[in-house]
Amino acid sequence: MTKVIPVILCGGSGTRLWPLSRSGFPKQFLVLSGDDSSKSLFQQAIERINSIASAQISLGNTLIVTNEEHRFLALDQLRELPHIEATLLLEPVGRNTAPALTLAAFEAKDDPILVITPADQTVKNTAAFTKALQDCIAVVDADKAKQTIAILGITPTSPETGYGYIRRDAAKGAHQEYAVQKFVEKPDAKTAQSYLEDGHYLWNSGMFVLRASTWLAAIQEFRPDIFGATETAWVARTTDHTDQATFVRPDKEIFSTIPSESIDYAVIEKCPGSKYAVKMVELDAGWSDLGAWDAVWQVGIQDEQGNVTAGDTLLSNTKNSLIHSSNRLISAVGVENLIIVETADAVLVADRKNSQDVKHIVNQLETQQRTEKNLHRKVSRPWGWYDSVDEGERFKVKRIQVKPGASLSLQMHHHRAEHWIVVKGVAEITNGDQVITLTENQSTYIPQGQTHRLANPGTTSLEIIEVQSGSYLGEDDIVRFEDTYGRS
Fold it and tell me: Are 452 and 429 in contact (CB under 8 A)?
């Protein structure tokens, strides 16, 4: 029986899918595409990689490497997969995929085979995906010297300039694998066309299979700076547990000093011709990394006019377009090859062929320090969510939902007062020295500077309307004294 540990790399921000994907709620946590339209890309990736278990393959707990900021998004979505047991390795800051995989290799016990996949890809043919990964595992398992790395290469369907390529040998091995000659960077259109015609070049999927010890030896050899700093941060880690998952946190100060580098640049591209053999198994399964809105259109279910729609839409004489509504009706008349994406606080309109250039809008948002880059109007929190429904000079109105049994931090604001109206459920409210219980249609007032807390003691969701008033209403006007989620 071969011991295998699934590893999900869940640290990307997906800025090319703005305004739906934002740094506070990146694309891997969105429901965008796939066989199961009710599950996020993250959930699909977990279920897909856990489908490789067989009579010969024993799967351990899934390792998820994600950002500290996204731990509760990941945990909430994991709770919808009750059959999955996971350990979350929490990066205090993003340092790309090479340090992320190094954390997973340190966490893995007894030198298992690691199967590594990003959290934000989609695959149409799960059976073909499972078979290809099982072949990769067989390739790695057959090498008793523990120096083989297997990679999934995607059968190219077009002269794509947005992917790196793998050049393979012609001869196929016993487990459907090819030797990798070299890796090449993203090509221009002419070069990509020559790769497609050549037949020996495949897209680099970013999915790898190797032993934990192989990765640690290779990263130590090729990038000892990354290995050493990550090891030091790992030794100083802390660990805590929830009902379904374990959180592991490397030391923040040390981890922040690690060079930011990808798995490919740090190690994989240096391996051909070295003692670390790189083998490739071909995957033809309707794969996409959903790197831009045009890719979402390509993998979506198209109507007779070539349109892919989501949400409340009405179309007339519209062709080959992606129309995505989150909150309100979108109507399109007489247009072709457009991307139209609506959220509560932003609308994107783009030519499909220019969808990669959404990053330029995101750069402008960052330069102007606009909140639309990072957060939606509706913001997820570990205790629930809030939706800023209206605001003006000296006031803001929020709709707040608190999960059963959850509570906000014990806190205080220097510059604002708050009025709370319960519209659903039961609220336990700490207001200075007083603790009161309010039910539907009851309200209370929190004076400026007063210590307070909102909690839901019930078994159903609590919803309130919060009206803030004061001279400054920014989210950073908060002093936390106690917090269940480690933010005080």
Answer: yes
Distance CA 474, CA 416 (A): 9
Q: Are residues 343 and 432 in the same domain?
A: no
- 142, part of any domain: yes
Residue 439 exposure: Cα atoms within 13 Å on the Cβ side = 1
Q: State yes or no: cis peptide before 250, omega within 30 of 0.
A: no
Domain that holds residue 342: 293-364
How many domains does one find in the chain? Answer: 3
Task: Round to whole Å and give the CA distance between 288 and 45.
Answer: 12
Q: Contact at 8 Å (CB) between 193 and 159?
A: yes
CA neighbor of 143 nearest in space, from 111, 100, 104 = 111
Final residue before a domain boundary, out of 235, 252, 283: 283
CATH of the domain at 393: 2.60.120.10
Q: What is the pTM of this model?
A: 0.92
- Residue 155 φ/ψ, nearest 5 degrees: -60, 115
Per residue in 439-483, pLDDT (tens digit) is 999 999 999 999 999 999 999 999 999 999 999 999 999 999 998
Per-residue pLDDT of 376-405, as tens digits, reads: 999 999 899 999 999 999 999 999 999 999
